[in-house]
Amino acid sequence: MTAIGGAATVRRMWNFSAGPAAMPLEVLERLRGDLVDLDATGVGILEHSHRGPTFERVLEESMRSCRTLGGIPEEYEILMLPGGATLQFSQLALNLLPDGATADYPDTDVWSAKAIIEARAAVRANIAVIFEGKRFHYDHVPTLGEMTPTAGAAYLHYCSNNTVHGTRYSTPPRAAPGVPLVCDASSEIFGRPIDWRAHGLVYAAAQKNFGVAAMTLVVIRRDLLERTVRPLHTMASYAQHAKAGSRLNTPPTFAMHAAGLMFKWMIKEGGVEEFARRNAAKAQLLYSVIDSSGGFYTGLSQRPCRSDINVSFRLRTNELDSRFAAEAAREGLDALAGHKDAGGIRASMYNAMPLDGARALQEFMREFMRING
Length: 373
Fold this sequence. Notes:
This protein is of the alpha/beta class. The protein has 2 domains: 2-24 and 271-372, Aspartate Aminotransferase, domain 1, CATH 3.90.1150; 31-268, Type I PLP-dependent aspartate aminotransferase-like (Major domain) (Aspartate Aminotransferase, domain 2, 3-Layer(aba) Sandwich). Helix content is 36%, strand content 17%. It is built from 10 helices and 16 strands. The strands form 6 sheets. Strands 4-12-11-10-7 form a 5-stranded mixed β-sheet.
């Protein structure tokens, strides 16, 4: 728990929420000021026209900082779109999956399962589930021998880091030759390097690693923008959003500004490689306790594919799970109850979670085990 001075001292929890998630205090304080007066214009960010010169500059800086932070090649278009990543489950299929064609989907957790459902509802095409992770309680992502990609598929969609059960791909899955990879990177975007040129499209919701809810980043190879697989309503079309510079209508201006501040903060802190190092260190603090607990704590994922971002585990009984989360909250460690589909405990530690937060949780885990073990 941290304290902030001022007219009144505010005690802030260590926030382990899966999203909306923790943000750096310096970014929050900047946003607080910008709500009232953005860049000494006398007008706050919520009031500025999305067509005016002040917001033009905000958006240009956000896009430029995003490209710099991620090392995103110039042949990829950056879009900041309204709505969460769930909207991409259908928008992706509408844009890239022709009627009667096939797209590959390894099912590795709750969100990939929802992506399958939404894609099936959106288009008249074959959604090929090439790995059924539910059979294994979602405890791992597929190895090379566990799935067979479809030759000639429109794309292969995967979720690189699975927030509920705490698994991740150490390297991207292999699609059939010539088939674009599409990645839902919502929980680890800018938290470890991405091989952009191995992907046709990468998307990520903002509220975990780079800002606030109601906006999603889409990074798409420009040749895929030229695909026309069906007539689309304007707001559903990636190409139309790109043509309009992510401003087909009044966009989520506050979220775009918050993202720009987050990108600049991550660049200042050392960039993607530095956050990959930090995230691995945070996760290891917790896994070291789990692995040495003699079964008091049990991880939900197999060790070779454990997430550095979402550490999911359970205790010996449901009652202990509930007591752990409640007592942790009283100690300033918030939002540790596991997802309803998995139960147990989940510590989500995105880029803005400092190492001290993970250390505080590690100490609590040891003390809770000492008392209750």
